[in-house]
């Protein structure tokens, strides 16, 4: 199974997804109309008679499939139906800001950014809320270690996180609330829970009484008797039930505090998200998301306290992404086995990290490894080089000279790409299959650009334009489209040189040495130079007039991959 998954990850740009093919009933495709044909447009399914594009471009491709999303609460995929037609409210639990974020945090953010982008692609008006926990035990402990004000420390790491997200092409949420600026809303909700009889106060602390909420455990499936005191909830002999959790904590010496009806203190962890989601989305909204580790106790407790504060409280879809593992362990700061986003993007392009993260279905565990990052970086270079070459060829032609049609096989390729791409994302955001759908259009572009047969192809430029535009649209939906393909290629080359611990001048010098060896018929020396560079991820490409280089998966990494590759 592991080998099969590795094969899938490696080949998602090499093997197209086998699905249905849609055919237009014309041998040629009107280019002028096709430029208006966006991914939301479904070609007619017909192969028997000619059909004009005016009849094709009016049908919605989204009608082919209904978006299904896995709901942790019901343990199944469900058709997505928001509470208000055309509008979606989504809340995602953000980071506790006391250190640089690791790639486990990156996965949560990228997963829900893809969901956010896809919902916008489906023309939903989305209010996306992602919070910052800037008041917490871990923040206070770290601040004390550094002799720093806790809020100053957390503010710095909130800013660092936002910088990381920009590098990963994560869109900025509609709102990014912080605990420290929402104390009045938190206190109000705690008061309401107390009034409704679901909580009790002791010596300045306020606890939620799980015994008063019979549905406790509905999200995680856990029973109260299964909970071990002290594992996930602090032991306190004053509690009515060991599983009761803090809504408000009385202040301790040297800790930040806020005034409340129960005395100075600060909120417990869980109440903040209930209060902030209600503030921006109301008590009933569509999607609540986060990592799988939040199912219990955080989201379980959120459901209990939100329903205790307002009986109409409801979340339609609870969505959780899988872990990032290192070896066989979940990556986490507490285990000390984490790799920060900064460490990765120091030597890999940020979008290579994004590609790695969406190369596995969001609910599956993903195993972090240098080999997988190398593969993602190589795939990204291939895509960007293909599109850059395509654009360069098109720039040499005057658009006014382009014809209005493309060959039918180009139409068929695009129809299949659009269908597979939409179908995979509609199936619970199956991004690996969406990525695989790029394979065939990319291959055809390269054939048109570089093969003898392709260069003679009828309406070659028209085909390149149409294929290139559709690929760019797909990359945009997945958050993989750079502002400049040529600049991204330059950055990928720079990162590869950094990993190889070489400068471009040194690589060019090696190329010159190899050329001299070949001219002198010293082929053994020539091969040694090529292999030395290949060993560190630099591959040489011999052209008619010169030798160039590009990043590649280093030889020692290739040896770690399944033999079938």
TrEMBL record:
Catalyzed reactions per annotation: tRNA(Cys) + L-cysteine + ATP = L-cysteinyl-tRNA(Cys) + AMP + diphosphate
Q: Which GO terms describe its molecular function?
A: ATP binding; cysteine-tRNA ligase activity; metal ion binding
Q: What CDD domains does UniProt report for this protein, alphabetically?
A: CysRS_core (cd00672)
Q: Name the coenzymes or cofactors required.
A: Zn(2+)
UniProtKB keywords: Aminoacyl-tRNA synthetase, ATP-binding, Chloroplast, Ligase, Metal-binding, Mitochondrion, Nucleotide-binding, Plastid, Protein biosynthesis, Transit peptide, Zinc
Q: Look up keyword Isomerase and say if it applies.
A: no
| GO cellular-component term (any) | mitochondrion
Q: Does the keyword Zinc apply?
A: yes
Q: What is its main location?
A: mitochondrion
Localization annotation: Mitochondrion; Plastid, Chloroplast
Q: Name one GO biological process term.
A: cysteinyl-tRNA aminoacylation
Q: Which InterPro entries match?
A: Cys-tRNA-ligase (IPR015803), Cys-tRNA/MSH_ligase (IPR024909), Rossmann-like_a/b/a_fold (IPR014729), tRNA-synt_1_cat_dom (IPR032678), tRNAsynth_Ia_anticodon-bd (IPR009080)
Task: Give the EC number(s) listed in the UniProt record.
Answer: 6.1.1.16
Ranges for domain tRNA synthetases class I catalytic come to 81-376
Q: Which HAMAP family match?
A: Cys_tRNA_synth
The task this protein performs is described as: Nuclear genome-encoded factor required for normal assembly of chloroplast polysomes.
Record-stated family:
Belongs to the class-I aminoacyl-tRNA synthetase family.
Record PANTHER family:
CYSTEINE--TRNA LIGASE, CHLOROPLASTIC_MITOCHONDRIAL, CYSTEINYL-TRNA SYNTHETASE
Name-wise, this protein is cysteine--tRNA ligase
């Amino acid at each position: 199974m592991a080998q099969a998954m590795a094969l899938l990850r490696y080949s998602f740009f090499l093997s197209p997804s086998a699905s249905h093919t849609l055919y237009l009933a014309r041998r040629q495709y009107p280019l002028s109309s096709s430029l208006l044909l966006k991914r939301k447009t479904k070609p007619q399914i017909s192969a028997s008679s000619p059909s004009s594009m005016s009849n094709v471009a009016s049908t919605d491709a989204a009608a082919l499939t209904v978006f299904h999303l896995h709901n942790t609460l019901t343990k199944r995929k469900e058709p997505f139906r928001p509470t208000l037609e055309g509008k979606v409210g989504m809340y995602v639990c953000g980071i506790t800001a006391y250190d640089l974020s690791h790639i486990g945090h990156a996965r949560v953010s990228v997963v829900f950014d893809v969901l956010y982008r896809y919902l916008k692609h489906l023309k939903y008006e989305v209010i996306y809320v992602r919070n910052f926990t800037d008041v917490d035990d871990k923040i206070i402990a770290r601040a004390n270690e550094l002799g720093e004000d806790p809020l100053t420390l957390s503010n710095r790491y909130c800013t660092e996180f936002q910088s990381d997200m920009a590098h990963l092409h994560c869109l900025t949420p509609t709102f990014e609330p912080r605990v420290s600026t929402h104390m009045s809303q938190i206190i109000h909700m705690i008061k309401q829970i107390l009034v409704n009889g679901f909580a009790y106060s002791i010596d300045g602390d306020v606890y939620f009484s799980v015994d008063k909420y019979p549905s406790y455990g509905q999200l995680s499936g856990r029973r109260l008797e299964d909970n071990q005191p002290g594992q996930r909830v602090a032991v306190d002999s004053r509690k009515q039930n060991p599983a009761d959790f803090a809504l408000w904590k009385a202040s301790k010496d040297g800790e930040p505090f806020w005034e409340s009806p129960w005395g100075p203190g600060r909120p417990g962890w869980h109440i903040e998200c209930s209060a902030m989601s209600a503030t921006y989305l109301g008590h009933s909204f569509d999607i609540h998301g986060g990592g799988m580790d939040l199912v219990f106790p955080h989201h379980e407790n959120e459901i209990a306290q939100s329903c205790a504060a307002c009986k109409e409280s409801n979340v339609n879809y609870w969505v959780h992404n899988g872990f990032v593992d290192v070896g066989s362990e979940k990556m986490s700061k507490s285990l000390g086995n984490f790799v920060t986003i900064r460490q990765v993007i120091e030597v890999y392009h940020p979008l290579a990290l994004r590609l790695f993260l969406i190369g596995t279905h969001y609910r599956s565990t993903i195993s972090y490894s240098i080999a997988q990052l190398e593969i993602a970086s190589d795939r990204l270079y291939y895509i960007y080089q293909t599109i850059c070459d395509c654009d360069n060829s098109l720039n040499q032609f005057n658009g006014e000279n382009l014809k209005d049609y493309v060959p039918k096989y180009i139409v068929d390729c695009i129809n299949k790409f659009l269908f597979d791409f939409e179908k995979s994302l509609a199936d619970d955001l199956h991004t690996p299959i969406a990525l695989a759908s790029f394979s065939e259009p990319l291959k055809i572009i390269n054939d048109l650009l570089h093969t003898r047969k392709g260069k003679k192809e009828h309406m070659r430029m028209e085909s390149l334009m149409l294929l290139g535009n559709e690929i760019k649209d797909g990359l945009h939906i997945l958050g993989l489209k750079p502002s400049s393909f040529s600049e991204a290629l330059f950055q990928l080359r720079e990162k590869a040189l950094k990993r190889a611990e070489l400068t471009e001048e040194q690589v060019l010098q090696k190329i010159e040495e190899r050329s001299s060896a070949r001219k002198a018929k010293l082929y053994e020396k020539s091969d040694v130079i090529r292999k030395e560079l290949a060993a560190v991820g630099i591959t040489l490409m011999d052209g008619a007039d010169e030798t160039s280089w590009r990043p590649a998966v280093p030889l020692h990494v290739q040896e770690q991959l399944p033999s079938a590759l």
